Amino acid sequence: MRLTSVRNRNLSLWQSAVGEVATKFLQDNPKLRAAMQQAAAFHAAAVAKGIDVPPPAQDVATVAQELSASNPQTLAYVSKLVFDVARAYQTRDAAMGRLKDFLTRHYATFDLFGWIQCVWRYLEYYVAAHSMPPYVDWAQQSPPDINFGVIEYRLPSRCRILLLGDWGTHMTDNVAMLRQGLKTFKPDVIIHLGDVYYSGTKFECVQNVLDVMDALVAELGITRPPFFTIPGNHEYYSGGAGFYEMIALLPGHGHRLQRSRSGQPGCARPAGHRDQMASRQARQVPRLDDPAVASPAAFRA
C-alpha cells in the first residue's frame, strides 16, 4: 500500500492508531488489516485535498458489498465516521451517541471492535502528544555536569556517512534502499534526518526503524553501524515520546546502546576534531558566555 502522509497532526495520529491496531490485532486477517489501513489513507488524502467524503449507500447489504470490494469512498467514509466518534469523545460532543448508533447500524460488518480500539489508541496518542516531552537537565544532576549528555562516540578521521531522510515508513522501497546503501557504501555511520511516519509513536519508531535495522543487519551478516537520528515534525506530532524512547535503544559499535545519560539526541565528531558538540537540549541551550560552557572542561580535544 502506498504511503499517504498529511501535514495534519490529528489525522497523522489517527493513521498511526489505525496502523498499530491493524498490525497488532489483525495478523490473521490480512484483507481486513489492509482495508483498515486503506480506509485511513483514503480519508487522510481526502481531507488534505479539502474533499468532504460523502456517505455511501445507506442499505446494509450494499455497504457490506462495497466494504468487501474495498470501495475507496466507502472505506474513507468509515474512517471519517470513526474518527468523528473519537473527536466527539475529546470534545464531549452530544453528537457522539448519534454517530455511534449510525456506525453500529450501517457498518457492523466492518470489524467495529477493531475500529473502537483505534479510537482508544488515538485518544491515548492525543493526550501524550499534548503532554510535556521528557527532559533531563544537566544542571539538576548531582553534581551538575555540563557533559551529562555528551555522546562519547567519535567518527573515524576517514569515514563514510550514510544520510537518510523521511525514511521511517516501513515501506518495502525504503527497506530496499537501506539494504542497497549498506551493501554498496558499507558506511561507518548512519544518520537519519527524520521523519518516522505517521506520527513517530513508540510502536512506529520500533517497527519502522529499529526492527528494520535489526532485520537488515542479520540478513546481510554485517556489524551494525552506529546510528544517529534527529526528530522531524512527524515525531513531534506524538509529542516526541516515541523518539525519546527510540534513542534509548539506538545502535552503536555493533549493539543497541543504553540511553545516553541525558536521554537527549546528540552529535558525533571526527577523531581529532576540536569541536565537541553536546546533546541538543529539549528546553534550553547553554549560552556560549556561560563560564561553565566556556571553560576548558566543556570542550575535549
How far is the N terminus from the C terminus?
50 Å
- Overall structural domain count: 2
Q: What class do helices, strands and sheet pairing give?
A: mainly alpha
Q: Helical region count?
A: 11
Name the beta content range.
5-15%
Mean of residue pLDDT?
76
Strand order of the largest sheet: 2-3-4
Percent helix: 40-55%
Q: Tell the overall outline.
A: globular
Low-confidence stretches: 252-270, 272-301
Elements, N to C (H/E): HHHHHHEEHEHEHHEEEH
Notable traits:
two-stranded parallel sheet; 47% helix; globular; 301 residues; disordered C terminus; 3-stranded parallel β-sheet; mainly alpha; single chain; 7 strands; 2 domains
What can you tell me about this protein's structure?
- It is a single chain.
- The chain has 301 residues and is mainly alpha-helical.
- The chain has two domains: 9-129, no CATH class; 138-298.
- The protein contains eleven helices and seven strands.
- It has helices at residues 9-25, 30-48, 60-68, 72-91, 96-107, 112-129, 172-185, 202-220, 233-236, 241-246, 291-294, and strands spanning 154-155, 161-164, 189-192, 227-229, 251-252, 255-256, 269-270.
- Helix 1 (9-25) packs across helix 6 (112-129), helix 2 packs across helix 4 (72-91) and helix 4 (72-91) packs antiparallel against helix 5 (96-107).
- Residues 252-270 and 272-301 have low confidence and may be disordered.
